[in-house]
Amino acid sequence: MTRIVVAGAGYVGLVTGVCLAEVGHKVTCVDFVEDKIDLLKKGVSPIYEPDLNELIRKNINADKLSFTTDYKNAYCDADVIFIGVGTPENEDGSANLNFVYTVARQIAETITRDCLIVIKSTVPIGTNDKVEIFIKNYLKHDVHVEVASNPEFLAQGTAVRDTLSASRIVIGAESEHAKQVLQDIYAPFKQPILSMNRRSAEMVKYASNDFLALKISFINDIANLCETVGANIEEVTTGMSYDARIGNKFLNPGIGYGGSCFPKDTKALHWLSEEEGYVLRTVKAAIEVNEKQKFKLMKKARKDFASFQGLKVAVLGLTFKPGTDDLREAPSIPNVRLLVNEGAQVYAYDPVGMENFKKIYPTQVVYESTAEKALEDADLCFIFTEWEEIKTMDMKVFKDKMKTPFVYDGRNCFALAEAEEAGIYYQSIGRPEVKTFEAKKEVIL
Ligand code: UDX
Known about the structure:
Organism: Niallia nealsonii
Shape: elongated
CATH superfamily of the largest domain: NAD(P)-binding Rossmann-like Domain
Largest sheet: 7 strands, mixed
CATH class of the largest domain: Alpha Beta
Radius of gyration: 24 Å
EC number: 1.1.1.22
Number of domains: 3
Enzyme class: oxidoreductase
Number of strands: 15
Strand order of the largest sheet: 11-10-9-12-13-14-15
Strand content: 5-15%
Pathway: Nucleotide-sugar biosynthesis; UDP-alpha-D-glucuronate biosynthesis; UDP-alpha-D-glucuronate from UDP-alpha-D-glucose: step 1/1
Bound molecules: uridine-5'-diphosphate-xylopyranose
Oligomer: single chain
């Protein structure tokens, strides 16, 4: 049996390790954060992700999955080591590879057998080549190592499903041996396996994420224009989607993309292209549109309110998307900062993201246990995340609970007819305004 070790028990590493165990492999996950490993050993996932807890427990009990901080013991006799550590953004937009190289160094110094190192983390094109040379330079034993690329395409909130039934498995390998080892590991997955050279595999990851980010920024751009020319983005995207070349996915307008991938991967590829003396103009435009789109609701509300000073502002939804407690690059963060700095009293509700939000704004925000409580007596409301629980709320609640029902919805959670029927003031993205509620003169400009 192939001895598999996964370095990094964050989103990518943990989900990879758990899913590899689930299909029958014996996997050890390594991380240097002791608290995280302690939790995992008890069968508790440190991240909120559907099905993950269950699979962790099941595979620990089946003796297929284990966790440790002792990397020396784990790496020394591994056949294959997956690197699934974070590659966050540097100040200048480039990818920070410190974690990748720290792990690479540890691997080089501890392995005692021939080993295939597989980079799952999203890394700039050419990194696999560099890591292979780096590891060879630091090897302590006379063993054969090779590095292969195997990018990850999972999305948060559906990470387990995305991994177990991935759209494709991409293998970037420079030798038949490396290709074969990975094909054998992935044989139980039954998905298309695409083999290519390492640089192409690295590029597939960036090009896929940046294309999706571009799609979102494009539709946000069109939605903004719809508002000024009197079109409705929902009707427009429906009309577009019947062309199979366009499709109906990732055409939802909103307050921009957040999360741990699109913002950093667009910037990293743009940075890399500049280093290469080429400017990726399309990706640059996607980044610029997204930066502005984050504050789209604020811009709308400023037309209605002279200042947010002293107003009670309800905020529904904090995470960068539903189904996760992750706040990385969530548009809610800069928006709440703006409100708080302007002296608004922010009352927030999110089904799972509040504990993490408290780490950023421990005292400046009042956290409520339900959306209704956050809306109580509020002057205005912002919706930043389209949680099912929010989308299925009866819109009459805004009219009944709020002092003045000004609702600014950044994720188009409700039908316009519903807002009209509820008798509220409702602004969304790329759709006509609903102004059923007669705004009070003393509140608005
Ligand atoms: C993304 C990719 O989907 C995944 O394939 C890759 O491996 C990692 O990055 P993730 O960041 O988890 O996954 O979330 P995703 O569902 O793609 O959403 C990213 C952001 O785009 C969210 O803020 C979401 O609200 C926004 N989005 C998405 C839109 O604004 N409109 C859309 O139509 C789709």
